[in-house]
Specification:
heterodimer, A: 243 residues, mainly alpha, 11 helices, elongated, B: 253 residues, alpha/beta, seven-stranded mixed sheet, 8 helices, 30% helix, disordered N terminus
Chain lengths: 243, 253
């Protein structure tokens, strides 16, 4: 299993894909937070709740990009055909998926931490520049970093499941983006009672960006989503024919 | 259907360990279509067999079934008497190349081999050995997207050789190779087989096959048409091409 983990890690390190994902996330977070802080009125940003909502961008970006990285771990192998030599080496397939999930957790944690830290740093600079009083406590920052990283790690696990299930790379990536930016935000706006239970909203609650759910319930929900998607993707991969 | 089923395995009952590949009534259906239809043959260890048939005859599907990438609808496809998935460390017994371009374009040749060696639990020194063997050491650092087709074929072969296997399964390995590449491959396969190892190579380059193999299996429309020693199949002055075209009905595919 150590060999499988090292193999999966090398797969991720030996192409620029993860770096590009990271740069895209970096750009998105920097752009979004700057726009929010510049465009919103000072009164709008005066309360702790509103400030935490601004920080949502970091949590969302961490989760989404972690999910994309998870999906890519499997769809890239299908797209470029490396799945064939991979499964020739490990024909029982389970260890390959286990390694992808484990490395997905690590990559997800890193994406989550980096997104939240970048968000926090950027927002603090912008608040200071505009003379806005920063209402966030040390506890808030701690929850952003730990909850945000955990949410991103779980999204990465779910992403591996989605990738294994959807198989087509473009469809999986577009699907995840659409889920985060269309399905989740539409549901939050129009059916909030249901929307708050979706994986993106649960992640926000876990990171402390929203108080729609308690952190414990949010964590439980996210674990269930991630486990269910990983299990379905696992099952689909174990016995599927490889072209 | 022409009955020309010469046995590849000699009547002197070979023990199980001497049979490298055996297909017993292998069938693979996709809906109504039978890509492989009740195909049976076995290959004795130490033989070099050409697996021949027109495009779409079911050659690649058979190889995928043998390698555990797909499951047969019926029958058994075995390597060394077991299903591929049940082999311990399969790449130490079987090396295979199914597509000539199963690489991430942004990954270096060396990293491609390393990720497979790590997963297989092989020492990374083995990667350098196979790079040397296929004459890719100088290009190992480069990304695969800069490789020529011939280099990609050799990188695929290097991956198949990582585990120093006893059986090599290659799907159309000479496709797109220039004459120097074809000669290199032929010399390589002869040397590999000369060490008493087994080769199963699918192809429709008949002239090339006739120079390399000692046995042939011919299929079309998923059905076995002939199997046997090459010299027995073409013993009345016909060429392999004559026999092949006669069997497959000479339709243009």
């Amino acid at each position: 299993m150590i060999g499988q983990l090292r193999s999966e890690l090398l797969k991720q390190r030996s192409t620029e894909t993860t770096l590009y994902l990271f740069l895209a996330m970096f750009g998105l977070v920097a752009l979004a937070v700057t726009m929010h802080v510049v465009a919103l009125g000072a009164d709008d940003l005066s309360s702790r709740t509103r400030q935490l909502e601004v920080f949502q961008v970091g949590s969302r970006a961490g989760m989404l990009f972690a999910g994309l990285a998870g999906a890519l771990a499997i769809t890239a192998e299908l797209r470029y055909g490396t799945i064939r030599p991979t499964f020739l080496v490990t024909p029982r397939r389970g260890p390959v998926l286990a390694a992808k999930l484990a490395i997905g957790v690590l990559v997800g944690l890193a994406f989550g931490l980096i997104a939240e830290a970048l968000m926090a740093g950027d927002a603090v600079v912008a608040f200071t520049a505009r003379g806005i009083d920063n209402q966030l406590t040390g506890g808030d920052y701690l929850q952003l970093l730990t909850g945000g990283a955990a949410a991103a790690a779980l999204w990465a696990v779910a992403g591996v499941g989605v990738g294994a299930l959807v198989r087509n790379q473009v469809a999986a990536l577009v699907g995840l983006c659409a889920w985060m930016f269309v399905v989740e935000s539409t549901s939050e706006s129009f059916v909030p009672g249901f929307g708050r239970l979706l994986p993106g909203s649960a992640g926000l609650a876990l990171a402390g960006n929203s108080d729609e759910l308690s952190a414990a319930v949010a964590a439980l929900l996210l674990v269930l989503y991630a486990a269910a998607l990983a299990a379905v993707g696992w099952r689909a991969t174990l016995h599927s024919d490889i072209a | 259907m022409i009955d020309q089923t010469l046995s590849v395995v000699p009547p002197v009952a070979a023990t199980l360990s001497e049979v490298a590949v055996s297909c017993k009534g292998v069938t693979k259906r996709y809906g109504e279509l039978a890509a492989v239809d009740d195909v049976s043959f076995s290959l004795r260890a130490g033989t070099v067999t050409g697996y021949l048939g027109p495009n779409g005859a079911g050659k690649t599907t058979t190889l995928r079934l043998l390698l555990g990438l797909a499951e047969p609808t019926a029958g058994e496809a075995l390597v060394f008497g077991r299903r591929y998935r049940e082999l311990e460390q399969p790449i130490r017994k079987v090396g295979a190349v199914l597509e000539s371009n199963d690489f991430h374009p942004a990954r270096s040749g060396r990293d491609h081999l390393r990720m497979l060696a790590l997963a297989a639990g092989l020492p990374l020194g083995r990667v350098e050995e196979v790079l040397e063997l296929v004459e890719l050491r100088d290009a190992a650092k480069r990304r695969v997207r800069t490789y020529s087709l011939g280099m990609r074929q050799r990188l695929g072969l290097a991956a198949a050789l990582l585990g120093d296997p006893q059986l090599l399964i290659l799907d159309e390995p000479a496709n797109g190779l220039d004459p120097a590449g074809v000669r290199w491959l032929r010399t390589f396969l002869q040397q590999f087989a000369g060490e008493g190892r087994t080769v199963l190579v699918s192809s429709h380059l008949l002239a090339e096959v006739a120079q390399t193999v000692d046995h042939v299996v011919i299929i079309d429309h998923g059905r076995l048409l002939a199997r046997g020693r090459l010299d027995e199949l073409i013993n009345n002055g016909q060429s392999l091409e004559d026999v092949y075209l006669e069997l497959t009905g000479a339709e243009i595919s």
